[in-house]
Amino acid sequence: MFWHLKFLSTLLCLLLPLQNARMTPVCEKGEFLNYSKNKCEPCPDNQYQSKRGTDNSCDNCSTCKKGSKKVSECTKTSDTHCRCKTGFKPKDVLNREICFCDKGFGLDETGNRCMKCSDGFFTNKVDSICQKFKICKSVIKIPGNSTSDAVCEELTEVPKVISTSTSIISSTTSTSTTTSSPQNRDSFYILWPVLLYAGIILLIGLLSCKVTQCIHNHKKEASRQESICRKPVEESGEKCLSLLV
């Protein structure tokens, strides 16, 4: 008797899940199972269900975001279909809701168009505007391209000693320039001929005095010799003879 009761309870446990499975409905596409009512109901607005089953909810419809545009609307049985705009790339190959403007491409003023940067411009960030290459004052070390800016050759720094001496020279030059004004130069140009003429006259005067003194001395010596010769012969004869010799 006990054995029969055990067999019946086991059979009942096996039949109950099958009975419940037969009683739970399977919903079609575009429907979800309302467990409280144990029946299928259509998906709400902006939701969809793309497969048959016993899911108790529907999926939310996708929204095309920046860089993508809508190809088809969301329905009860299918999601919204999006596609990247021209020039944009999808962040996910399977999901094209979000697209971006890659490096080397730039957005326009509206942000709705992505175009390759023209010659002389670049972008090194996504979703950015093309920027112009750097203008080098010296030699270009690395030329720019669509994804990187140009690199300039750095100028070698001048040693401080040279810069100091240069500043000293420049300050000296500026000081001398400031001291020597045009008015002083004009005065110098006017005075130097006068000084030159005065020097020449002074030199001539000195030479004249020297010549005059020499002539005077010579005449004095000649007169002295002549006076000696005019004395009596007995006093100065020998000297006169010596002079004649």
Mind telling me the C-alpha Rg? Answer: 61 Å
- Side by side, the strands of the main sheet go 1-2
- CATH fold-level label of the domain at 102-167: Tumor Necrosis Factor Receptor, subunit A, domain 2
Q: CATH homologous superfamily of the domain at 102-167, by name?
A: Tumor Necrosis Factor Receptor, subunit A, domain 2
- Say how many strands there are: 14
How far is the first residue's CA from the last residue's CA?
200 Å
What would the average pLDDT be, to the nearest integer? 76
What is the N-to-C succession of helices and strands? Answer: HEEEEEEEEEEEEEEHHH
CATH class of the domain at 102-167, named: Mainly Beta
Beta-strand share of residues: 15-25%
| Low-pLDDT stretches | 158-169, 175-181, 232-245
Number of helices in the DSSP assignment: 4
Question: Strand pairing plus helix content: what structural class?
Answer: alpha+beta
